[in-house]
Write a structure and sequence with these properties.
By secondary structure, the chain is an alpha+beta fold. It is built from 2 helices and 8 strands. An 8-stranded antiparallel beta sheet has the order 1-2-8-7-6-5-4-3, covered by helices on one side.
Length: 162
């Protein structure tokens, strides 16, 4: 996965083929509780929202996540856009990043679904952000999305790339 930098914002795109129907893909990814399954145990990810209804525009979802050993962070995201069975966007409102914008796209293809993730993020503390990215954040982001791909492969028999 290549992570590009521009104006202090980092961007990347991943994609994965899922040999399931668009209905199955949407049912899985539109359930916020499934995010915990897709996050490495080392992050000790916990959903703290009281209600976890299927995603909808304007929905606020709260989490707690271990950023470093012995350091937890609260993370609040808002679902800012939903197009049923096609895409949704989650944006951080409060949390470990200065900016987090994640667009999930689902494209029906022969025999399954091609899922795309487009992520743009900015780190806090601009004076040290490039070093933090180089020495820590880049590896963490790649690890999280690699774990996610591996988990989806186990759950759905998916392949890494289309």
């Amino acid at each position: 996965m290549e992570i590009l930098s521009h104006s202090g914002i980092y961007s990347f795109h991943t994609k994965q083929y899922l040999p399931i129907s668009i209905d199955e893909a949407w049912q899985f990814f539109s359930n916020p509780a499934n995010l915990q399954k897709l996050t490495p145990d080392a992050l000790d990810f916990r959903i703290t929202s009281k209600s976890l209804e299927p995603i909808h525009q304007g929905q606020i979802i709260t989490y707690s996540i271990r950023i470093f050993p012995l350091f937890r962070s609260k993370w609040v995201t808002e679902i800012t856009f939903v197009k049923d069975k096609a895409m949704f966007i989650d944006e951080q409102r409060f949390g470990p990043y200065k900016l987090w914008h994640h667009r999930h796209v689902f494209e029906e293809v022969d025999g399954g679904v091609l899922m795309h993730d487009y992520v743009h993020f900015k780190l806090p503390f601009s004076w040290i952000a490039p070093l933090a990215f180089k020495w820590y954040v880049r590896k963490k982001i790649i690890g999280i999305f690699s774990f996610r791909k591996s988990t989806l492969s186990k759950l759905f028999g998916a392949s890494d790339e289309a």
